[in-house]
Amino acid sequence: MDDIKIPIPHKPSKFLDQLREHIRTDGKAYATEITYVSWVKQYIFYHDKKHPKKMESKHVEEYLTYLNVQCGASVNTQKTALNALVYLYNHFLNQPLQKLNFRYSRKPTRIPTVFTHDEATDVINCLHKDFQLMGKLMYGSGLRISEVVRLRIKDIDFNMRYIIVRDGKGAKDRTTLLPKSIIENLKNQVIVVEKLLALDTAKGIGPVYLPNMLGKKYPKAGRSIDWQYLFPSHNTSVDPRSDIKRRHHIYKGTIQRQVKIAINATKIRKHASCHTFRHSFATRLLQNKYDLRQIQTLMGHSDIRTTEIYLHVIEELGDHVVSPID
């Protein structure tokens, strides 16, 4: 249950718990909370557990320079740490940082690894049958692994042929493609979930978790097929938020292991992972001359510059320049 928020006291006394409460009150995504709290904790430990209230801009500058010089952090890693510390001081502590002067990382952002179409299909075909549909969604719809595991049946619109991604990165919703070739597979998966729901109900297993207090507003929704996870876990577990025994979605680490096994089986010599499917989705669309803005929307990028990195991938693949030997 890697997307279940860590419980915090009603009136937290510990500093990091107070920070978590503030982030949640701000309505930020849980992934952002995890990232920010992690960086703030590392920052505190770097300064020998000195309280952030007793530190200022120079301490932030020192830490960010350390990440570059001693740790060899990439530009994006350094920026993420900066964002977390700016949030800490400017929003949480209300001690706005002065103009920061630190050594920016010059380690370039790496070009994303992509599969060729044949490589992507080979990896999917090497996956165990229980995981092939998830691989097809990552490659065919450009979904992040966290988005795949959190899909609920109501998020699939078979008639309009699109998928709604709820609470994606940046706490945003978006729609993306529903590949025609996997519609029957998805409908069969819904039937599997229906049968599992019936068994769980007969055994007295609790209803599926509903976000944002919806369980209280719609007490019967947790047992409706619409709200069930498309890829439920094989095992039930106790929800730490309510102590109710229920069935959550499949753990993303399980899929990551299966994809690694499949990549090794295909003997693809690339530093690839589940996210490589998503990179490959965007690259295929660019190769097929789709508009960059359209791809940005499907990928859920807030900044077009993030999408533009795939232009560099195309150039690396040699789509525009023909080698003299050819």
Structural notes for this entry:
The protein is 50% helix and 4% strand. The protein is mainly alpha-helical and 326 residues long. The chain folds into two domains: 15-92, DNA polymerase, domain 1, CATH 1.10.150.130; 110-320, hpI Integrase, Chain A (Orthogonal Bundle). The strands form two sheets. The chain has a three-stranded antiparallel sheet. A two-stranded antiparallel ribbon has the order 4-5. A hairpin with a 4-residue loop joins strand 1 and strand 2. Helix 1 packs antiparallel against helix 2 and helix 6 (129-141) packs across helix 11 (274-287). The longest helix is centred in the middle third of the chain and has 21 residues, at 183-203. The protein is globular and about 60 Å long. The model has no long low-confidence stretch (mean pLDDT 91).
